[in-house]
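Anyone up for a design puzzle?
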């Protein structure tokens, strides 16, 4: 009878069969079992197979490493720790990679200028300081993919903003922005050279498309942030029953923004200033909400959209915009405000912040955009003074 047993050598079996031999000492026969080892080929004893197996394992390890690295990278984007890697790595990121996070603060420059004035720089810097864990994006129409501008740029404001870890500056490519929105058909038909208010109209359209696609907060470039906005879906009341479009926030693909884009096209009239901006927001809000006057500093809410009190962003109304550039006996504390709109559209005389003037605007610059104040205002005056002495 054969008996099969496993032996210690890997991949081997032993067959035990009966056998007899003569015991010389006792002149007798003894019977027992002897083992016949039968070895079966095993891949691990195949040199080529072993190498192939090891190589496959290495490939699997590498793939796992890249997969885990990708996950960690995505996680890092969602947290403030990502910004510890910039500005070195942020120049390799695309607008979509940043915008897809859905938490961006978006600014637009729809003129061709490449040197942001101090107020624009202050708006972006103040947002970067208040929202340190969120990407701050400035889209510039005058910037192209071929424009070589970075921290070493000759434009002082551009260098200043590029050096901020959570600030990203990208070209504004409207045709790309309007893709997959109702605005694309309008954009393909409109003739910018014949538009009276193209800079404003194109900005009104771009902010709607960007917020609908990616979500986040849009701010005008004359808004100084002073504390975080706690709302996700909100409009800013400029006054009772009237909405601004200078600052608003919504999650991606919100129906209200889509409806606004459709109405933008349906009721388009580029000759009326604000028809595609604050008047659009107001008439669309009135279709879903019964707007009432504000009493005190309370906010209103309708269909999960917060209609924020004028004190939140417009504590100084537009007829009194010049007060930002005046000296106050006692500066207001703006305790009920999240940000301040400085009404640059009204500033036809181009009033500016002057170092040492002690105006309200200068105090705001010092408090909320100190780098802009120092680099673009104080240092600029020193440079101008030195230059004038050299000329003399």
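Challenge accepted. My sequence:
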């Amino acid at each position: 009878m054969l008996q099969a047993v496993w032996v210690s050598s890997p991949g081997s079996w032993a067959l035990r069969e009966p056998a007899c031999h003569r015991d010389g000492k006792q002149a007798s026969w003894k019977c027992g079992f002897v083992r016949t080892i039968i070895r079966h080929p095993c891949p691990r004893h195949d040199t080529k197979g072993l190498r192939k197996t090891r190589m496959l394992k290495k490939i699997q390890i590498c793939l796992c490493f890249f997969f885990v690295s990708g996950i960690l990278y995505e996680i890092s984007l969602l947290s403030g720790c990502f910004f510890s890697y910039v500005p070195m790595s942020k120049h390799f990121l695309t607008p979509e990679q940043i915008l897809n996070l859905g938490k961006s603060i978006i600014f637009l420059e729809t003129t061709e200028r490449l040197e942001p004035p101090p107020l624009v720089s202050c708006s972006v810097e103040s947002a970067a300081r208040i929202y340190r864990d969120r990407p701050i994006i400035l889209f510039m129409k005058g910037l192209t993919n071929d424009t070589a501008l970075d921290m070493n740029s000759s434009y002082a404001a551009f260098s200043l903003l590029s050096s901020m870890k959570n600030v990203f500056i990208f070209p504004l490519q409207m045709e790309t922005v309007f893709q997959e929105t109702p605005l694309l058909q309008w954009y393909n038909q409109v003739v910018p050279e014949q538009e009276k208010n193209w800079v404003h109209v194109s900005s009104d359209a771009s902010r709607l498309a960007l917020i609908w696609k990616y979500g986040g907060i849009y701010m005008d470039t004359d808004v100084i942030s002073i504390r975080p906005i706690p709302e996700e879906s909100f409009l800013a009341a400029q006054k009772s029953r009237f909405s601004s479009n200078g600052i608003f926030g919504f999650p991606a693909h919100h129906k209200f923004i889509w409806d606004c884009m459709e109405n933008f096209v349906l009721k388009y009239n580029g000759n009326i200033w604000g028809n595609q901006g604050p008047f659009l927001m107001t008439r669309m809000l009135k279709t879903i909400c019964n707007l009432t006057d504000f009493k005190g500093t309370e906010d209103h809410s309708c269909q999960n959209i917060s209609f924020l009190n004028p004190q939140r962003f417009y504590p100084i109304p537009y007829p009194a915009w010049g007060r930002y550039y005046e000296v106050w006996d006692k500066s207001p504390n703006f305790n009920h405000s999240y940000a301040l709109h400085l009404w640059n559209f009204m500033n036809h005389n181009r009033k500016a912040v002057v170092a040492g003037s002690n105006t309200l605007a200068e105090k705001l610059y010092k408090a909320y955009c100190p780098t802009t104040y120092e680099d673009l205002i104080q240092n600029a005056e020193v440079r101008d003074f030195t230059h004038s002495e050299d000329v003399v």
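A detail worth pointing out: The two ends are 120 Å apart (CA to CA).
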